[in-house]
Amino acid sequence: YCSGFCCGASIKQAMYFKDANPAVDTVVIYDDLRVPGNGEDFYRSAQKKGVTFTKGKVSAVEAKGDVCQVNFRDLILDEDATIAAADLVVLATGQVPNSGVNIDIPEEEAAKMEVKPVSILNLAYRQGKDLPQLTHGFTDSHFICFPYETRRTGISSAGPVRRPMDIAQAVEDATGATLKAIQAMDNAELGRAAHPRSGDLSFPIVQLDGCTQCKRCTVECPFGAIDEDEKTYPVFNEARCRRCGTCMGACPVRVISFENYSCDTVGAQIKAVDMPDEFSEKPRILVLACENDAYPALDMAGMQKNCYSAFVRVIPVRCLGSVNTIWITDALNAGFDGIMMLGCKHGDDYQCHFVKGSELASVRMSKVDDTLKQLALEAERVVSCEVAITDIARVPQLINDYAAKINEIGMSPLKGFA
């Protein structure tokens, strides 16, 4: 991994030697050289002073008496090269917070060496008193779309706590985080969601008389927006809520809803789809598409005239985490031949705007096989796919491949019984 500023630091150190003695032969061997912004001028000035930049991969550094021999692969000439007599070798290293550990050492040693981060926030959240962190100790956020926002609504991160950076980048980063904090305060004052559904005035409503106190909504909320009262009923904190609907998708008895988004409204859309009868030999496929990445990708695919199966009917959802299994059951009972869910990429390098909604949907859908068996249906009739907003060409192909699979399986035996 990279430290984010080691390229600039290496150039600075090389310049020190050139300033002290212009005759010193100074070489920077790099794999990738990143000097954005004003760093480009710094790089040019180093070249003018005679610093040599070589794109290569170092294979070995060997002691040869009072000097060192550096062996490397020149990636431009595609051949092995050697610096025979180097008086000093400086290694540019990666950087992680001191709460992180070396990923190459054994787990037993890592546990002893790890420095537990000291919480200075002392937050009252189910998920801990501090900001949720990634593997190496950086704060967790949607790095592409919401780099400053953490999983604690209204708390923004800036500087090296978010990623390695130099002082100039940290100052600029702090400006961006401050502007996002102001935006969050303005929205909170008016009772609106902060992001990504910025301006949304709806919030979760729970029917306590039907609640079974299973605690799935409080546990699965990615942002710790749901607490419990003394009777273990869910208590929603609207200022923390980002209106993703994950709680609605988690609720097994469907007592959580929004004014403009509920199990009934989406269920009504599913049931309103015109269904070909069993004699027309025309399949009908339901696509539940995340409105953040998958649906825009489909939209742009249409604008570019990328064709996909005409047997598909698309319904956008706030997040795949909001998909309740009752929608799957309703769709199958209505006669849909296949159900395809398009959500964001999940995992360590996730792109889900609501952190883990797509991952939760995958876990829930892995248990749909039992429902399919009860209905005497094939497991392939319900699939989940990861889609990025840039998959403009890939999404139509995914849909066409799935339509071909459904055509191979055959029509649903439930068609015509709705």
Radius of gyration: 27 Å
Topology as a string of helices (H) and strands (E): HEHEEEHHEHEEHEHEHEHEHHEH
Spatial strand arrangement across the major sheet: 1-2-3-4
- In the CATH classification, which architecture of the largest domain applies? 3-Layer(aba) Sandwich
Write up this protein.
- Helix content is 30%, strand content 16%.
- With 418 residues, the protein is an alpha/beta fold.
- The protein folds into four domains: 6-86, FAD/NAD(P)-binding domain, CATH 3.50.50.60; 107-189, no CATH class; 198-260, Alpha-Beta Plaits, CATH 3.30.70.20; 262-409, Rossmann fold (3-Layer(aba) Sandwich), CATH 3.40.50.
- Strand 9, helix 8 and strand 10 (312-317) form a beta-alpha-beta unit.
- Helix 1 runs parallel beside helix 2 and helix 7 runs parallel beside helix 9.
- The chain is globular and about 85 Å long.
- 30% of the residues are buried.
Brief rundown of the structure:
The protein is an alpha/beta fold and 418 residues long.
Explain the layout of strands and helices:
Elements: H1 6-20, E1 27-30, H2 39-48, E2 52-64, E3 67-74, E4 79-86, H3 107-113, H4 167-189, E5 205-206, H5 216-220, E6 226-228, E7 234-236, H6 246-250, E8 256-257, H7 263-272, E9 285-290, H8 294-303, E10 312-317, H9 325-334, E11 338-343, H10 357-365, H11 368-374, E12 382-386, H12 394-409
Parallel strand pairs: 1-2, 9-10, 9-11, 11-12
Antiparallel strand pairs: 2-3, 3-4, 5-8, 6-7
Helix pairs in contact: 1-2, 7-9
